[in-house]
Amino acid sequence: MKRTVFHCICLLTVHVFLSTFPAAAQHHDCDAVEYRAVLTFDMEQRHIDGAVEIVIRNTSRSPLHEVAFDLRDNDVTQVRVGSLSASYVQDDTVLTIVLPRELASLDTAVVHIAYNGTHRALTPGIYPTGVLFGEQVASAKAQSSAHWYVSMTCHWLPCNNVFADKAIYDITFDVPAGYVAAGQGSLIDAQCGGSRSRFHWRMRDPIHPHTAGWAVGPYFHITDEINGVPVDYYVLKSFHLRVRDYFVRLTDMIATFEHAWGPYPAEKIGFAMTDGGSLETHSMVLLDKNDLHSAATPELEAHELAHHWWGNCVTPMDLRENWLSEGFAMYSEILYRANSELQGRLDLHMAQYVQSYIHGIAVSEGIQPLYDYRAHGARYNYSSVIYIKGALVLNMLRHFMGDAQFYAGMQEYFRRYRYSNVTSTMFREVMAEFAADDLEQFFNQWVYEAGWPILCVEQVSDGEEDPLRLRVRQMQTGRGWCLYEMPMEIRVFTHAGDTLRVTRRVHRLDEDELLISEVCNKEVASWEIDPDEYMLVDYVSPTSVASQSPAATSL
Ligand SMILES: [Zn+2]
User: Fold this and answer.
1) Residue 62, SS3?
2) How far is ligand 1, taken at its centre, from the CA of residue 322, in Å?
3) CATH 3.40.50.720 fits 454-552, yes or no
4) ipTM, 2 decimals?
């Protein structure tokens, strides 16, 4: 099945980002520890008044004289640092603040910023940017597919807009009576009555701006609990009677992921209906109402829930490592789908994605490696390669390591890097603790290299009493792709009606030979290589390459 639309970002509409923006500020010396904001909403005017206290820490060895935060669509009216007024400069994307006193290495300070902005109305058919005011709901989704900035949280909060800066978010929403704010973390306080209502949400665990967000709407609030974890649904009236039926699979999803990866990492499970796209906002998943009103799509909830383990909690160090988020969420989604079927087999699902990647996505998107895909021609932050090839590579790693070692490694990786940032190398090193080798070759060829093996496999033994031998030629070097080393499953059917399944290692050679000594030629009726077709491998027939050397083969 060819898949062109993914849950986090609609690939068909990302062209709207291709106007020119300045690059986001890089704030490596300033760590935002906590954001404490009050947002006051005028729903009719699409206007938000903001006041935020940002606890910052100087992480450099030198004194800090100024700090900068990404901020768009808002005008700053006042800045203080502690009790002292501070001067500042604001352009379209960055707010730079001159600290009234230098901040010594490792010291902290509290920066107070008053700001306000009028936001856009949702435009049908256009992928949204920034804060969106739809028909009934205002919402802030974070992820940006544009190359030039990581998250859209800077449209409602001055923030250090990088994956690697995790902070506590403490947000109070002041909204007109009749509206309810669905926020992240725990609801500390709710004051309703009179013409305004206030909802104070605070997160227990630190997250990055990329997974911050909220929704404000005329919600019905429905509560539940799964294994002691509270569940909050914030839905519109048109949907509130369908909530329990629609989310009937939620308990199974959580059970699948907890069994595979470890305990659910947030203090609550939350869903809020919005306009304009779905997103894995931590502990309050934002679901597009159009997705909910269409046919049931459990993969959508599964994908966004899975991000609570992969992406939200264990977070890529930067966008180059984004497959550690999207590939893992995609694999989790497929794992749930396979588990939810009677006799569902994960490899059968993965086989579909091999074909859709090689013959669909790689053709339309170009061919990129998983790591640093954007530097190799990917146009968007959320290119399909990181979803599909990412999931395929994880599945091959499971086969390479064996189920028990793979899941033990994944659970240790999750436990060790909860609410931290990770790289592919850090992932490899943890998995190698559970694998038979250091996995360097596996990661080099599947993560850092683009392309895939193109194999020509043929039987080469003749004598009736000779064991079965298969010659494997790697033809992809003609495209400039690397040679691969991998275990390969072979299924042999005998004339006696038996089926034999063996695994042999294909070495990093232009030509290799696999010996299957368990059977001799006269016993063999037929054979198949990679019988479940889960390997990201393409094949060419011996007749098509009979007279060509690998380097000269045009594929
Ligand atoms: Zn995703």
Assistant:
1) coil
2) 10
3) no
4) 0.99
